[in-house]
Amino acid sequence: MHCLNVAAESQGLQRGMALADARAICPGLVTRPADLAREAAALAALRRWVERYSPMVARDGADGLVADITGVPHLFGGEADLRGDLHARLTRAGMSATSAIAETRGAAHALARHGEGIVEEGALTDGIGPLPVTALRIDGDTAQALTRMGLKRISDLMAQPRAPLARRFGTGLVLRLDQALGHQPEPVSPEADLPQFSARMTFPDPIGLQADVMKGLARLLERVCVALAQHQRGARRLRLELHRVDHETAQVEIGLARPMRDAGRIKALFTKGVDEVDAGFGIEALRLTAHVTERLAPEQIGQGRPLRQEDALADLFSTLGNRLGFDRVLRLLPAQSDIPERSFIIAPAAHSAPEESPPQCGPARPITIFPPEPVTTRGGGRPGHPPSAFRWRRMAFTTLRATGPERIAPEWWFDDPAWRTGLRDYWRIETREGPRLWLFHTPQAAAWAAQHWFAQGEFA
Amino acid sequence: MADEAATFALAPARVHEAEGPGRRAFALWQAARHDGPLIWALPAHAPHLPMLRGLPEEVGARLHVIRPGSEVDLLWSVEECLRSPGVALVIAEPSSPLSLIAGRRLQLAAETGQTTGLMLILEGQGSNAAETRWQCAPLAGESRDSTLHRWDLKKNKKGTLRFWTANWNGKTSALHLVPAAGKRDQSAETSR
Fold first, then answer.
1. β-strands A389-392, A395-408: how paired?
2. Which of A18, A64, A115, A377 is the most exposed place for a label (fewest CB within 10 A)?
3. If phi over 0 gives left and psi between -120 and 50 gives alpha, with beta otherwise, what is residue A169?
4. Chain A residues whose beta carbon lies within 8 Å of the beta carbon of residue B71
5. DSSP SS3 for B52
6. CB distance A228 to A267 below 8 Å
7. Contact call for A316 and B80, based on CB within 8 A
8. How many domains are contained in chain B?
9. Do the Cβ atoms of A311 and B60 come within 8 Å?
10. ipTM computed for the complex
11. Using one digit for the tens of pLDDT, what is the confidence trace for A202-211?
12. Do A367 and B51 touch (CB under 8 A)?
């Protein structure tokens, strides 16, 4: 049992109880699996909302929030009214919450979880004295040991001499006690909000023309790009939501070939998507979010041709990628392998940088490569020699000159089905008919010898 | 040397066509001679790919491969590439005959972006809008260190038709013309 509502608690169920036990106590129990990620997200959202009471709000454990409301209550008409306001709003949102206001963070934490309320200023000792020692944020073993010694309430602890306590239970207990009583400071450190790269715009009258949407988009983009520039980031993906009058939402999403914050150029990529949107009875609100961003340091502009060319190429890849998919706009990168198929990698151009190939050495390589295609040889040639005549792609060839063999062994640490036939002897075959082909022979293959010749590439 | 290579130079900001079994070698030689980013558009179902280690010097790092899924997408992406000012040469392998409309659109896009295009077409599948059409075939060389190519200019909108036998080893942009024992030095045919 991770969490339960008031009705379940009134039946006698507790947190941490096994589900079978809980079902035995309360047969009509309705359970759902806990989704910790979404719970954390909801808590983060609630934290942002609680900032209406104080600028200093932090998460407190997995299920709590702590706010430093020093100097705030009078704005809401006092502490009691503030707490009432908080509860009223949470109840209206369908949430059950417990809360406490106290002088120290430790005391508020203890009181919020063990009977709620407000501890008046100066009444801290009386306020938290009757609470059990478990309220002090101490671990289970310490709490159990304290209980065994008969120290059940915080007031019991306060009466004890401190030195023996610290010696027996470590300084952690004394520290928690001091924090609860205000002898040790414990500030609330609010989490920094992640920058939000989004902007929205609502219209007094619904709009329907494409030009109007683009104009609105231009204004939104300007705001988002200013925010991006402030945080030195560039957008990688952007989403435009168009809220229609009939509560339908249309979305246009674009990707960029490289991080960018240039409003004019991003706007051009939206043109096609916005064109396809059905405006229905009109669009009343626009919302633009850059949901994927990357670091983009400020750059000196106006360096002349190379940079402009780079920009133009990036724009081109964005355009191509948004229609074809970014996995179809590719670049060849060198790889550390002697296996022809794996001697280069095909990587998406938008997510890789060009790399210079290492200088070419060793036997020549063809300009194009294709999956091995069987070559029909006539008769059994001399072993270890290329065929004198062969057929490939239904064309007959006669060998004029052969260069080789170049023996390439499979990578034993990598089980490639295409290389199960073992070693390959590669030959560069110049034919009388003209084409210069890259043939290979698999001497280790078990099948019939004439079947052992394949073509895998064409030379210039 | 420079003079020899200049005879094969493709007119800038136009779309050209190459056919025959040696068309990819011709395209790579042109790629080596163009300075700047290169695009090679291949249909996604094409079995072959340019092999990085076999490409001429300096071409591999500049080459981008686009693999559109359909013929329409291929023509669209070639048009977009030609329209972009950031690209030096666009090589494309359309798998169906180029219509006159498609060919004309590509020419207009090349003029807009000041980019040169080279379509590697199958035999007889070109469009009349092409500026030049080359028939390329590898030739068997007499000696071990010659890699001969026969480059036949079959269609030329602004000039005469000729053919050459060139010796290009596929490594650099350098090229040697082989004095050919050709009888047809200047063709009497008119351009299509």
1. antiparallel
2. A18
3. alpha
4. none
5. helix
6. no
7. yes
8. 1
9. no
10. 0.88
11. 999 999 899 9
12. yes
